Amino acid sequence: MSVPSRFRSAAPWFSLALGVALTGACVASPPSQRSDAPAPPPPKASVEPVSPALVPATSVAASASAASAPDPFPRPAPPQPPIALHPGGKRAARGEAGMVASVEPNATRIGADVLRRGGNAVDAAVAVAYALAVTHPSAGNIGGGGFMTIRLANGDSFVVDFRETAPAAGATTEKVLAMLDRDGGIGLRSTGVPGTVAGLSLALEKFGSRPLGELVAPAIDLARKGHRLGARQAQTLAWSWPKLERDPTARAIWGGKKPHAKGDLVRQPDLARTLELIAKDGPKAFYEGAIAVAIDEAMKKGGGYVTLADLAAYRAKIRKPLRFDYRGFTVDTLPPPSMGGVAFAQIMLSLERARAWEAKPDSADALHLFIEASRRAYAERRLVAVDPDFGPKDLDTILSRLLGSEHLATRKPPIDPAHATASAALAIDAVEGRESPDTTHFSVVDPAGNAVACTYTLSASHGAKVVIPKTGILLGNALGGFSREGPNVVAPGKRMATSMSPSVVTQNGKLVMVLGSPGGDTIPNTVAQVLRNLVDWGMTIDEAVAHGRLHHQFMPDKVRVEKLLAPPKETLAELSRRGHVIDRVAMPIGDANDILVDPATGVAYGFADPREGGTAEGVQRSEITSGR
Questions:
Q1: Is 108 a residue of the active site?
Q2: How far is Cα 179 from Cα 429, in angstroms, rounded to an integer?
Q3: Catalytic: which of 196, 249, 330, 439?
Q4: Whole-prediction pTM value?
Q5: Could you please report the per-residue DSSP string of 57-111?
Q6: pLDDT digits (tens, 9 = 90+) for 396-453
Q7: Domain parsing of the chain, residue ranges
């Protein structure tokens, strides 16, 4: 992996500085809005989260007695002067008045056009999500679920949770295991209750400024008139085709005797009609109207579990982000039911205590510390892999302990700077599963400073490999995301755990980053490595995203390395000498379509990860119109 020449030399890294700071639910000092760019309309309203707060209550201030006591585990002081990020980048898109980065060019363009017409970041994100449901069918969806992390220009931050839920009739461990064994994890019995339509509508209702019909219209147009299949979309379609072609409706949409290839025109008239109903009647059309009836009838005919009652009962929810500080930056990421945000936080907080930034990038010291921090974070994250509505009442206390200084400083065995720790030696009783890497992430920033990080999914590539007849809706297969035992065991109406980690980062109250990635289990590691590249080693956004990655997730006890972007041979040799098992793989790790914002100017720099070939598009001040 190449490293920009401006990176400074490393100092000794192995002195441990202990500590962690968790802050509250909202940024205290909002960024100033730039007066030289036309601002999109403000969000409709600020809302109080409807779910219990997951940010530890003791994270902002301790009691008077505790505050006066010496901290036995002091953390490194925030850098002074504050770390200066590096805007720009030879391959990065530049936007004076907004930015969109996604995996598919049509969706990126549609989101950027919403910003040009004066819409805000949430408006643009809703339009991007509906467009991806048409043009990126391996993960873009209205039949799956996901999350948005939203940071408003006034400093408030929220998570919109639209993860799928377990249908009542299929919510037993025996049925889930039977589905995995008998159906191979696909088909109607693998489907949870979809959350995407409800989640996008909730985000728009609370924080958007444009009517739903206006934002869905470009997706309707793409579905009716057709779009040319992109290279990445054709590739994933070919991979899924042996199973996807078993479903007659799916086969008719995406091929025939063989799957559509790159450049083929794909028309989806049934999906266009479905989107028209959603545009006209909102989520009611999907969860109570003709669409719900079609889903119910298909489930009854095909032996699936989702019913009209399940659909009518579904609710997207607004939650408080999980927040942590790293070297003077504040990160808002996902709380449970995601275990990705917890792992991301633990990784960064452990690296901060170990002063890992003092090692050279791509050195054995830097990567060894990252692997060991990841090993421990992935081991412990499943302890909180639970839908908070079904979790223990003291879930916030458990989170506080897992991210607290004392716990991070006293975990046994401690990180050995010279040797790998065997995962079995951690003695963590956590059930390990495997998540599909087939998800998608996109990022949006508007000229006022509102930001959206959205990760959503059908779970496996093309989900359940089943389309509801006459609707064009490809269903997800998230029901297999429950565990055999532990906090993530299935129950009616329960959300399954996930690694999704869409995150927004600020510095001194100003928006500086919008981060996230697909990749299943690899997501927290991917987001952590991009953040490290930007903060610790001064990379530009294109350098940080394109840089090679590695992955360790507790079990299996090996280090996955991207074969085409591997660290230097001498680094890998030294990691092996320290006891790490290196596994070179051809499959890329993640697809980080991310944004960096210059806090001094507000100019956004976006970059779509070349691993899946997306695009980033900036919006200029001269392009903004009222659009009304």
A1: no
A2: 26
A3: 439
A4: 0.90
A5: TTSS---HHHHHSPPSSPPPPPPSSPPPP----TT-EEESS-EEEESSHHHHHHH
A6: 999 999 999 899 999 999 999 999 999 999 977 655 556 667 899 999 999 999 999 9
A7: 104-140+163-318+468-497
